[in-house]
Amino acid sequence: MKKSYLLDQNSITKVPLPSWFNVSYTQFQQAVLKKDVSCFFGRKAEPLGELRYSFLPHADWSHLPKTLKEFLELTKQRPLVRRGLFVFVEPEEKEQPLQYYRRYFWDVLQYLNTQDDKAWPVHTPREPEHHLWSFCFEEESLFSFADAPANKQRKTRDLGQSMVIGFQPTIIFEGLEGTE
What we know:
Blueprint: H1 9-14, H2 19-32, H3 40-48, E1 52-56, H4 64-77, E2 85-89, H5 98-115, E3 135-137, E4 140-147, E5 164-169
């Protein structure tokens, strides 16, 4: 059987994982379920088991392209489920400044971009500064973001000891009004 790094709530308890991941996931779960802090989608999806997870050790990112591809295949099976993939990055020994995490996030996106064997979609600008840009992988537009321990001013962006990188297919936002 091939090893998968795409995790759900059940597999988190059944497969051996780095101890830091278990701590990071618990902190994430506690933050996401707070009504006054978290994202509406996360607060609804976490108890339903709709979110997916992975982890990223500093020394080895090699599984990440395959994991993201598996996640995108899963989202196509049930497109009406508003899934998100949350990748927990191995915590730093000492918390770093926000700029460090920002650079790390862009390095991860660049790594994924170089590992993607599909062409960049023509409907999406390649320049991140462009107002219509979104990160793309496997020809899918993704809402990608990072929450970091150094993010102290926005409660929704400090999810614990790990930087958490989120990926959500932009299609899940279609049809939503600004009040939902």
